[in-house]
Design goal:
By secondary structure, the chain is an alpha+beta fold. It has nine helices and 18 strands. Strands 11, 12, 13, 14, 15 and 16 form a six-stranded antiparallel beta sheet that branches. Strands 6-9-1-2-10 form a five-stranded mixed beta sheet. The radius of gyration is 26 Å and the shape is globular.
Amino acid sequence: MLLVGSLGQCQFDVLAQVLGAAQWGQFVEQSMVAKQPFALAHLAVDGLLFLVQVVDTDRDQEQPHGHRRGFQPVVPDRVVGHANKLIEHIHPPGKTHACHADRQDPCDSAAGAAAQQRADHILGHLLDHFAHTRRSRTLAAVPVALDALLQLADSAAVVGFGEPLVNALGAGIDGLRAFPDVSGPGAHNPSTQQALWCWLHGEDRGELLLRSRAFEKALAPAFRLVQMTEGFRYKTGFDLTDYEDGTENPHDDAAIEAAVAGSGASFAAIQQWQHDLDGFAALPAEERDHIIGRRHGDNEELDDAPESAHVKRTAQESFTPEAFVVRRSMPWAENGQAGLMFLAFGHSFDAFEAQLRRMSGLEDGIVDGLYRISTPLTGGYYWCPPLKDGHLDLSAICA
C-alpha cells in the first residue's frame, strides 16, 4: 500500500528581477524568482511513503543515499512515536513481513480499512508537524534576510513584496492581492504569484551578475532562487516583434500620478510573455500591423485596425476610469525562446487588471490579437515600498 501526502504551502516563493544597461552600449536584464528552501527525503517502509524533514548538516559531506549534497534525512524525536504507531497499523504486531502470505491485508477487511483510516489520520499529523516546524524556522529567518536586503537595495534596485510574504509577516497593505488567474475565450493568463521580487539594473552585465548573486546569498536564510531571466534593450525600446513598446506611457507629473500611491509606494504587475517570432514573421505585413494596431516603420496608430488590435484593446483613455500605467518592459531570450518581460507600475493594480480583462475578451468577447503570437507564462503582483532617506521604508510591514 502506498500513502502519499503533500505538504501544505508553507514556503515563500520569491521573485527577483535584475535589469540593466549593458556592455557595448546595449541594455541587459536579469530576472530572478526565489523560493524558500524546503528539502524532502523519502523514507519508504514496506510501501509506505514518509515525507521526512531534511536539515542542512554539513555542506562538505558526501551525498548520502542519492540526496542533495550536504543534506541528510532526519526524523525529529517528537515524530518518532507517531511514526511507530503508523507502522504498527500497517504492520500489526505479530504479523509477518508483507511478502508472507499470512500477513494482514488492510484493503481486504473492515479491520484493514479502519487501519488505513487511522494511518491516514496519523500521516496527516506528521505532515502538519513538518509544515509547522519548517514554517516556524523560515519565519524566524525572514527578519535577518530583510535586514540584509535593506543593506543591499539602493537606487539601482526595485524591491516588491508579494501578498504571501506580507501575510506571513502579520501585516497588511491596502490594495495588495495575489495575481488573478484570468482566462477568456482563447486567452489564459496564469497566476504564478511569488513572495518577493527584486529588479536590479546597471551598465555592466558582469556587475549585474555579481550583484544578483549577492542578493541571492543575502536572502538565502529564508528564500531560495527559483528563476533568473536575463533581458536586454532592443533598439530604443522596441519589442522583439520589431514594434516600439510603451509608446503611450505617461510622462513627468502624469507618470507619477499613474504609478505612485499617496504613501509613496507603487504596485508592480509582472508577466513573462513568450513570443512565436517565426509565426509572427510569416504573417503578411498588413496582418502584423493589425495585430499590433500600428504601422511598422513609423509607429503610426492605424484607425482602420480591427477591434482586436493590441493598441485598441489597451487604449488607456478608453476605460472608465482611465487605466494609465507606467510600463518598463524589456525583451528576454533564453534557450532558444524569446519574448517580453512585461512590467507595469501603478498606484493600484486596478488599471492593469482592467486592461488584462479586456485583452482576454472578458469585457466584450473580443480577444487581443497579441494572444495569436504570444503566450503569458507567469503573472505576479508586488507592493514596492517607498524610500526614506535613500533606503526602503518597511515600516508598513515590519514592526
